[in-house]
Amino acid sequence: MWNARRNTRAFREASLSEAALDVLIVGAGLSGIGAACHLSRRLPGKSYTILEGRSRLGGTWDLFRYPGVRSDSDMYTLGYGFKPWTKDSAIGDGAAIRDYIADAARENGVDRRIRYDTRVKRAEWSSRDALWTIEAEQDGGIERLRCRYLLMCAGYYRYDAGYSPAFPGAEAFLGKFVHPQFWREDLDYSGKRVLIIGSGATAVTLLPAMAQRAAHVTMLQRSPTYIVARPAADPLARRLRRALPIKWAYTLMRWNNLLYGQMIYARCKRAPEVMKRLFVGAARHNLGPDYNVEKHFTPRYNPWEQRLCLDPDGEFYEAIRSGRASVETDEIETFTPSGVRLKGGGAIDADIVVTATGLELQPLGEVAFSVDGAEIDVAALVTYKGMMFAGLPNMAAIFGYINASWTLRSDLISRTFCRLIDYMDRRGYVACTPRHSENANALKPWIVFSSGYFQRGVGRFPKQGARDPWRLNQSYLRDLWALRAGGWRDGALQFERAGAAAPR
């Protein structure tokens, strides 16, 4: 038996593909499927495979199954540029978004190129061969594949672990704990007292959804978050769909919502006090003059120092007005058998505690990279145009916006990567490597964002420079110019032909 296992492992380790793939995509979520669709449409002759660590496509939208799970931005910008979102609601629920991703994969033949339950562990670049060798774990064995180009679409957080702080006295609690990332399908919260710990998008989504069946839902937050109510169905989208072909209507809505979002973000940065009064005033309007908005809905930070939380159709505020839910702003002193005791002196009784306390960040899928035998420290990398990294040849990664929909940058990077491959093919180049020469002291964190989960893990991510093309923009319009209109002869890229370096 031992020999059989050893021989199986040896076979897999030796099964290096004779023919290298053109492109290997890591991750079959929103980004990976979108990237593969772009590749199929723009470079139909290229060979590619998607490696997905889980057993289904969809990424975030397959993983999260908690009540009410939905997008936190509109689907006209979260959807793909090439595939219109046709449902009436502009806010997609988790199942509908996964179906949308699966439809895109099927319509473009991408579903036949996915290998599931295959987790990438290492990626080694050989300058001599101008190829990446990928080591992936499957069924306990190691399989190797080779590719010319590597595209990382593995997201930014761990799928197998969520963040849960060490709560004092948690072992004394006699009820049930559940983390939204690992929702238990058999969890019945009907008629139960539910305590949600957290104040981010997940908590804001859970509260109104669980309040429909629970006896009462309490959201316990250390500090308030900006929560913006907006209609789930966009009346402008309805009018445009009646008057125009669906593709035109979708494109117009995409640009309308994109520009509106960028305008709000710019206004928050330029006049934070004005926007703070606007958002807090909206909360007061939704909750009434007698509600303590100053305590529970007046954040200590300025708008867009963290993401705004979306409240479709004002359901969050309505659940509070109805008395089915409430918000407490305090910190936990300790858990008790029946709930929590607060530092401010109060107590909250609960049968179920939902720890909506955030994610565990994971840079570049925790893949170990090496170039010509030299190990790469991911935290020391510097991003090039938000898509490639100094010193890593023929590799790009997708990381969306923090102030807009993820897919806006995902689509941009996917199209640009296809354009780069075509450019290299037409000129006979086999390798393209960003070369960074800025002073290391000028480098900045990957993202400047005050959310707790970013603060905990951003030090493990690559860095950005002080100016283009090394800056990670948070502006779609700037990226549109840099990635679509910008050329490749910017002095930062080194192109090579087989056997010799080409001039920069």
Can you describe what's shown?
With 504 residues, the chain is an alpha/beta fold. Helix content is 31%, strand content 23%. The protein is globular and about 75 Å long. It is built from 14 helices and 26 strands. Residues 1-15 have low confidence and may be disordered. The longest helix is centred in the middle third of the chain and has 25 residues, at 246-270. Strands 1, 2, 3, 4, 5, 6, 19, 20 and 23 form a nine-stranded mixed beta sheet that branches. It has a five-stranded parallel beta sheet with strand order 8-17-9-10-13. Strands 14-15-16 form a three-stranded antiparallel beta sheet, with no helix packed on it.
Q: Specify the oligomeric state.
A: single chain
Shape: globular
User: What summary fits the major beta sheet?
Assistant: 9 strands, mixed
Arithmetic mean pLDDT? 91
Number of strands: 26
Number of helices: 14
C-alpha-based Rg, rounded:
24 Å
Low-confidence stretches: 1-15
Q: Strand share of the residues? A: 15-25%
Helicity level, as a percent range? 25-40%
Structural class: alpha/beta
